[in-house]
Design goal:
895 residues; alpha/beta; Dna Ligase, domain 1; D-amino Acid Aminotransferase, Chain A, domain 1; Glucose Oxidase, domain 1; 4 domains; eight-stranded mixed beta sheet; 34 helices; binds adenosine-5'-diphosphate; binds magnesium ion
Length: 895
């Protein structure tokens, strides 16, 4: 068989000539950065051509032409003339002729938009071949089978993608011939079989379209180009664009390229390769290839695929050249690329390249190693490894290779996967966990009373509540997986089972959740552990040297603090003391509430003080030398009292103990219409004398003990929910008085700093007046978001938010990502005012937003000093803070 003699872009060495063409660009005229005009595929073909790589010659019809077509419904004026010009040029370089019966020029017609997307028209191969010219092709190659196979492929592709012949009809027609000849796919047919198939395909086309397959290559080309343009507005493409936020008016380009034939015999083949391993990131090309095959045969996986390293065995010269090409591409794109290549009679051709997709692990390893190799800068490495990729590495996840059926889906409230026995009660969860069982706490929603159950459980599943419901927030704080608001789930009041439709989940059934996806599965799903590759440490060290924002953590206990410190937090920005009042300490708190005289209250507080002091000491020991910010008591008191309903029922039955009777009285007394806006935070501290003082005494005694033990405690006392400078002064007076008492009692000075939380819009507006009174301010962006929007978050997240997001009434969930226009504006103004009033003031954020990369971008811009987030988000925040400091910039990566 004689060579097909495909020229390999001989014109690539020529300097680009100014082109008078309006709708068309030759490959040699374009560059990689023209993806919006040429589409990703076209821009990269152009780039490879410019680099002198062996790309079969061709041209790109621009997205401009597509937009013109979509506007007018016809091919734009002048396009056909331009096609004639560039096709004539191709004829000249190849010595072939489009439509010639003896030496037909064949091309592929390939769609290619700026962003690769599903639903766009599939590639048509061998376009230009006709029933006449295939005889010429057979004669010229001396291979009638090859010519028939090329024509068969054209008919199939043209019928399905250009003429849109019903896939089933086509499949049935083809299937009949294959069965008749006893083969599984067309590559197994002999020449007679192929001729049969060609006949059937021609008849099917004529039948379905009321006209024969066009015997005119120009008609084929025009129809194919128009079909590509039309596919831009196909259903799947439109849906995809909506989901991915890709603009509808970009349009697609069309690439027309000289065919090369990997199916021209056993000295030919086709393959795909990556310049580095896209799974692990290892610096080693990987790929697959197939002998004597064309186009999609490799990905279709019907025949014996060979690994890339076998290329050297079959085509040693091509293997060396491909290596050279891949190296050149990495240098040019400064990233891992994937390529499609074809070998025709022992000669290598490059058909496509782009920056390749990769796993999170590979992304990290490649970014770090490329920086170390000097291929990219460290800054680029930090930008490239995305925070969502880091998150994926940090959590266990369902093993996608395993087979499992998703029972229902909720909100991905706290990432990570977990499996355990379903338990519907916190006490039971604790008891079972203590007996060595892994449990999942399943509830309609959770409250502070469920905290110990959440600690004991592997994960939490709720049927109500949004991304900042109690369950979600606490689970994230604990670093436990949670799926919340799984609305199909109904947890029975009996607390013995739950159901999803007709499926029952009984207490003790194995259940799995994936908090990264929201999937809930009945039964056990194998879970892959998180990956902590050594490259992460190197990258984060660069991030630490780059970022301006300090990253501190929200940690309530010494255990949390250890996690935070291990993750690299350089302080605690929020220690919530309410957890010190729950569990076995609840009676002590209730004694404080129930006290009838000041004396009784002080006695009760004394007992609380002692246990708190031990907590604080443990925390200060872990965080020795680093600032620990302790927030004085914040929640409304009723959270420490039993539910009113239960007491009322007991009362009605006459079963109320004397103590319960007092609790009932207190529950009534402290009942609030809207606790969120009621007596809580500093209001409670001022209204209930002794509570804040006791907390301060416990804290400072703990600090003094640490000092005496040779430690370096750095105590910061934070007043929550302030609204006014007078109010803050009054609270600070309580703090100072308690501090004075401790100093007098111990005869030593215990240094500490004071601060206030900015959680109300009023506090934000008055930040300039608050600042002179304190050493630091910290934005509690959760409450600030609630109060700025007037949203009660649990209510709104469960019902309103999905509706608002779906209908585009809000751009994003403001509880997950800081609302730049409203809440962000308050943070910006307050920060500026505070720093103007008191330049040395330290300004932090300690809401959930402190660990959210998009919000961190804003905090960087507002000039905050630090972000405090849950320990499980510290690594992400360190990277995000560095990215924020580097400024936003898109990389080449095709998402
Ligand atoms: P996709 O975007 O789906 O990868 P492509 O346009 O890359 O579509 O083409 C599909 C297949 O056809 C690929 O395997 C590609 O390498 C092959 N192909 C495209 N153009 C040519 C050509 N001119 N010669 C040989 N094979 C081609
Ligand atoms: Mg491709
Ligand atoms: Mg708050």
């Amino acid at each position: 068989m004689s060579a097909i003699a495909t020229p390999r872009s001989p014109e690539s060495a020529d300097p680009p000539v100014p082109s008078p063409l309006r709708w068309v660009r030759r490959f040699r005229d374009g560059t990689a950065d023209q993806r919006f005009l040429l589409g990703g595929k076209g821009a990269n073909l152009a780039e490879m051509t410019r680099m002198g790589l062996p790309v079969p010659t061709g041209f790109t019809i621009t997205t401009d032409a597509c937009r013109a077509y979509l506007a007018s419904g016809g091919l734009p004026e002048g396009l056909i003339d331009e096609l004639r010009v560039v096709v004539a040029e191709m004829e000249q370089t190849t010595g072939l002729r489009f439509g010639d019966p003896d030496i037909p020029l064949l091309v592929s017609v390939r769609s290619g938009a700026a962003f690769s997307m599903p639903g766009m028209m599939d590639t048509v191969l061998n376009l230009g071949l006709t029933n006449t010219s295939r005889i010429g092709l057979a004669a010229r190659t001396g291979d009638p089978w090859f010519a028939a196979d090329a024509y068969r492929r054209l008919l199939e592709l043209y019928a399905s993608v250009v003429l849109e012949v019903d896939a089933q009809t086509l499949h049935r027609a083809t299937g009949r011939v294959l069965t008749m000849h006893g083969v599984k796919d067309a590559s197994g047919l002999d020449l007679i079989g192929l001729e049969d198939l060609i006949g059937v395909l021609e008849v099917t086309i004529a039948d379905q379209c009321d006209r024969p397959f066009p015997d005119d290559p120009w008609q084929q080309l025009e129809e194919a180009v128009a079909a590509v343009f039309r596919s831009w507005n196909g259903r799947r493409a439109r849906d995809y664009r909506r989901v991915e936020g890709i603009a509808d008016d970009l349009g697609t380009a069309v690439n027309v390229q000289l065919m090369v034939f990997g199916n021209a015999g056993t000295d030919s083949g086709t393959g795909v390769a990556f310049t580095r391993d896209p799974a692990t990131g290892r610096r080693r090309p990987v790929g697959d290839f197939l002998l004597n095959a064309q186009g999609e045969d490799v990905v279709a996986g019907v025949r014996n695929i060979l690994p890339l390293d076998q290329l050297a065995v079959h085509f040693p010269d091509c293997a060396v050249e491909l290596d050279r090409v891949m190296h050149a591409l990495e240098v040019r794109y400064r990233d891992m690329c994937d390529v499609e290549f074809t070998v025709e009679h022992g000669v290598l051709y490059m058909l496509q390249t782009r920056v390749g997709k990769r796993t999170a692990m590979a992304s990290l390893r490649m970014a770090v190693e490329m920086a170390e190799e000097g291929l990219i800068t460290r800054e680029e490495a930090m930008r490239r490894f995305r925070t969502d990729e880091l998150e994926r590495l940090l959590h266990p996840r369902f093993d996608r290779q395993a087979s499992y059926e998703v029972l229902t889906r909720g909100l991905a409230a706290s990432p990570g996967a977990a499996c355990g026995r379903a338990v519907f009660d916190a006490d039971e969860a604790q008891a079972l966990a203590e007996s060595g069982e892994q449990v999942l706490l399943v509830r309609t929603n959770t409250s502070p009373a469920d905290f110990h159950g959440m600690v004991a459980a592997q994960g939490v599943l709720t049927s109500r509540g949004g991304l900042v419901s109690h369950a979600a927030v606490v689970a994230r704080g604990l670093g436990k997986p949670a799926v919340c608001g799984a609305e199909e789930l109904v947890v029975d009041r009996s607390g013995t089972f739950a159901s999803v439709g007709s499926v029952r989940i009984r207490a003790g059934d194995l259940l799995s959740i994936d908090g990264t996806t929201g999937d809930v599965v009945l039964g056990e799903v194998p879970v892959l552990p998180p990956d902590m590759p050594p490259e992460l440490e190197r990258l984060l060290a660069w991030a630490d040297a780059t970022r301006r924002l300090a990253v501190i953590a929200n940690a309530d206990t010494a255990t949390d603090a250890v996690t935070a410190r291990d993750a690299g937090a350089t302080g605690i920005g929020l220690c919530r003391t309410e957890h010190q009042f729950l569990g076995d300490r609840l009676p002590l708190v209730q004694a404080v509430i129930l006290a009838e005289t000041d004396q009784e209250r002080l006695a009760a507080l004394g007992a609380l003080e002692q246990v708190q002091q031990a907590d604080f000491e443990a925390l200060l020991r872990v965080m020795d030398g680093l600032a620990v910010t302790v927030r004085l008591l914040d929640p409304p008191l009723h959270e420490f009292l039993p539910e009113l309903d239960g007491l009322l029922v007991a009362d009605a039955r006459g079963e109320l103990s004397p103590k319960d009777a007092k609790l009932l009285e207190a529950a009534f007394a402290w009942r609030e219409v809207d606790p969120m806006l009621g007596i809580r935070g500093v209001r409670l501290g001022l209204l209930l004398p002794g509570v804040y003082e006791a907390q301060v005494r416990a804290l400072l005694r703990a600090a003094a003990a640490r000092q005496r033990a040779g430690g370096d405690p750095r105590v910061r006392i934070m007043i929550p929910l302030v609204i006014d400078a007078n109010e803050l002064s009054a609270a600070l007076a309580l703090v100072r008085r308690a501090a004075g008492d401790v100093e007098a009692e111990l005869g030593e000075v215990v240094p500490f700093q004071v601060g206030a939380m900015v959680e109300t819009p009023r506090a934000a507006f008055l930040a300039g007046q608050l600042a002179p009174l304190v050493d630091f301010l910290s934005f509690g962006t959760n409450d600030l978001t609630q109060m700025t929007f007037g949203f009660s978050r649990d209510d709104v997240e469960a019902r309103l938010m999905p509706h608002y997001l779906e209908h585009g009434l809000l751009p994003a969930d403001p509880f997950a990502t800081l609302d730049e226009a409203g809440v962000g504006e308050l943070v910006r103004l307050a920060t500026a005012a505070a720093k103007e009033a008191r330049p040395v003031i330290e300004v932090s954020v300690c809401g959930e937003h402190g660990g959210d990369p998009a919000s961190i971008q804003l905090f960087e811009r507002y000039g905050l000093d630090d972000v405090s987030c849950s320990p499980s988000r510290v690594l992400v925040a360190r990277l995000a803070a560095a990215q924020a400091a580097l400024g936003e910039r898109d990389t080449d990566r095709d998402r």
